[in-house]
Amino acid sequence: MHRKGKSNYYLDIAQAVAQRGTCLRRNFGAIIVNHDEIISTGYTGSPRGRKNCNDLGVCLREKMGIPRGERYELCRSVHAEANCIISASRREMLGGTLYLVGVDVQTKELVAEANSCSMCKRMIINAGVEKVVIRRTPTEYEIINVRDWIYNDDTVLNSLGY
Ligand SMILES: [Zn+2]
Ligand SMILES: [Zn+2]
């Protein structure tokens, strides 16, 4: 855990981005920064042209009480990290940092245990992003080296473990 500084500045921006999210369960905001420049932003939202969870008044994952990390296909949203990545070119993202903030829609509290799902981890790895910084409290955050996901994270594997 670290305190204050540039990272919290970027996390504040990612949190503002999360406010645009449209899921009824949890909204995430992500920004990719490279060489102190914001390359792209993304929030939790439905594929363009499709209705959002909040338009329909229901998120199936929320309604069915699906546990964290499971059955993401039931929510119509494209994840913040994915939206962020498809807005940028790989060349811009190479060596960059993705800042991620999650906000619980009901409580408006930060999602202190937030982490990217296994599909987003795979995309982040292939985008060439080097670090992911996740907000834990308004002033504290965790820095993840994407290399650790490549070499030490079994959730990046499939459910059978390969
Ligand atoms: Zn949803
Ligand atoms: Zn995800």
How would you briefly describe this protein structure?
The chain has 162 residues and is an alpha+beta fold. Helices cover 30% and strands 23% of the residues.
Please, could you describe this protein's structure?
By secondary structure, this protein is of the alpha+beta class. The protein has one domain (6-159): 3-Layer(aba) Sandwich (Cytidine Deaminase, domain 2). Helices cover 30% and strands 23% of the residues. It has helices at 6-18, 53-56, 60-63, 80-86, 90-93, 118-127, 146-152; strands at residues 2-3, 26-34, 37-43, 97-104, 131-135, 140-145. Strands 1-6-5-4-2-3 form a six-stranded mixed sheet. α6 (118-127) links the parallel β4 (97-104) and β5. The protein is globular, with a radius of gyration of 15 Å. The model has no long low-confidence stretch (mean pLDDT 91). It binds zinc ion (2 copies). Residues 79, 81, 116-117, 119-120 line the site of one zinc ion.
Unreliable residue stretches: none
What is the CATH fold-level name? Cytidine Deaminase, domain 2
Radius of gyration: 15 Å
> How many DSSP helices?
7
Total domains: 1
Strand arrangement within the widest β-sheet reads 1-6-5-4-2-3
Overall CATH class: Alpha Beta
Summarize the helix and strand pattern as letters: EHEEHHHHEHEEH
CATH superfamily: Cytidine Deaminase, domain 2
CATH-defined architecture: 3-Layer(aba) Sandwich
Taking all residues together, what is the mean pLDDT? 91
The termini sit apart by 31 Å
The distinct ligands, each listed once, are:
zinc ion
The structure class reads alpha+beta
Multimer state: single chain
Shape descriptor: globular
Main sheet characteristics: 6 strands, mixed
Q: In percent, how much strand structure appears in the residues? A: 15-25%
